[in-house]
Amino acid sequence: MKPLVRNAALNSYVELSRSLGIDPRVLMKRVGLDPVGLAVQDRWISGVAVTQLLELSAAASRREDFGLLLAERRRLSNLGPISLVIREEPDVRSAVELLVRHEYMYNEMLHSRLSEANGLATLKVALELGEAMSTRQAMELAVMVFHQVLRGFLGARWQPVAVCFTHSAPADTGTHRRAFGPTLEFDREFNGIVFYASDLNVPNPMSDPLLHAYARQYFDSIAVSRDTTAPDRVRELIEVLLPTGRCSIEQVASSLGVDRRTVHRHLSASGESFSSLLNATRTQLAEQLVANQRRSLTEISGLLGFSAPSAFSRWFSEQFGCSPREWRLRRTRQQHSGEE
């Protein structure tokens, strides 16, 4: 499977594109991304498609700084749940190391490494997409995000020793100089940031020791393995796509950046099929949703991706041996009898 990124990687993309006079929906459809789906921040989408989209957008807007302009609109919260933990880390070192160690939780194509030597710390950033393509915009966005994290801890006046890119300088470096300062270097042997190692020992003024413990406990409870399986990925996408009414193997394959045959092959290797995962996921969600008295059965039908309540009722009866209304009544009686 090709690497995925969270939808939040394109946060503010639509607004930025429109401000530059280009149509974001047309460009997104060209790379197989759903503009409506951007509203779901934690949905995973193809990293290849996002990389292609940024390059197309830079060309269409004639802005070589498109990736940086998008990065300037980013917030730490765009990284997802890990941002809650980073805010409470005791110092810069632990925050950066956490961000590097768990990068797969927000961007699977990102591969970064922090090293120290001769009083300098070097944060190298790489993007691995599984195929050759231009990554200029995505790389500048990624490096800028790390730069913003460091500056958030070290202060607005902080300057690195160098910000390096392997690609050549743009015709106009104005945005780049504004973003990174005077130590910007192009045509270097790596992409990343060089800064004084002593910066890593700077305490985090935002950290609360009590909140840090709670944040770590929360993060440990949601942290996923780097070795996420194909069925795990498909199951997550099914949960996200069901309420949209567009949960099909074609849509899942598009989100993963592959074709439907590839999805079939990976699932078959694990002894699964798309229909079996779809049914299992629906069954699990249905049990949780129907038990919630505050949700109407019509609403639940839509959340599970059924075109009509009658179709949901027939499916539910096949799975549970009774209608959803009867199942809810039985559950309510059981709960009441248990309380007496």
Textual characterization of the structure:
Residues 232-330 form the HTH araC/xylS-type domain. Keywords: DNA-binding. It comes from Streptomyces niphimycinicus. InterPro entries: AraC-type_N, HTH_AraC. The chain is built from 16 helices and seven strands. The protein has 340 residues and is an alpha+beta fold. It folds into two domains: 4-222, H-NOX domain; 230-339, Homeodomain-like (Arc Repressor Mutant, subunit A, Orthogonal Bundle). The strands form two sheets. A five-stranded mixed sheet has the order 3-4-7-5-6. It has a two-stranded antiparallel ribbon with strand order 1-2. The chain starts with a strand and ends with a helix.
Using the alpha-carbon principal axes, give the shape. globular
Q: Element order, helices and strands?
A: EHHEHHHHEEHEHEEHHHHHHHH
Backbone structural class: alpha+beta
- Based on CA atoms alone, the radius of gyration comes out at 23 Å
User: How many helices in DSSP terms?
Assistant: 16
CATH architecture group name of the largest domain: Alpha-Beta Complex
What's the rounded overall pLDDT mean?
86
Largest sheet: spatial strand order: 3-4-7-5-6
